[in-house]
Amino acid sequence: MNIAVGSDHAGYELKKTVCAWLERNGHQVNDMGPYSGDSVDYPDYARKVAEAVAAGEFDQGVLLCGTGIGVSITANKVPGIRAALACNPEFATLARQHNNANIICFSARFTDGPTIERSLENWFAADFEGGRHERRVAKIEPQEFSRSGNC
Ligand code: RB5
Description:
7 helices, about 45% helix
């Protein structure tokens, strides 16, 4: 698959681990930065990756920051993006099977390299199950969300 990857300074080191794992496993990787460990703002990189995935330039994306929360919140502001914070490999499987997530987010400060690698393995091994999950995922879209009177 064609994968966009981004982080902030907190995720910079583990982003290298992610890119290396993706390349070893036959994926095309576009590292969208940052390219040093200098302090940056996570929304700049999360938005870049999310917009590129939403535009169809990449199949999926991987984002990292200190907690994984900032990049998740940012990416989910982009229409068409379903970004899931994976705290462990089981989250990664379920994010694909139930949520049809198209970006996986990691905490670089609370998740170690081997756990991230196992999570990526699960992520790429799992497929969206559809069925009742299709209906639920459709309800996430902004136009459906407002129609159901939830906002
Ligand atoms: C940066 O210190 C930190 O706030 C960031 O990496 C992330 O955890 C934000 O959600």
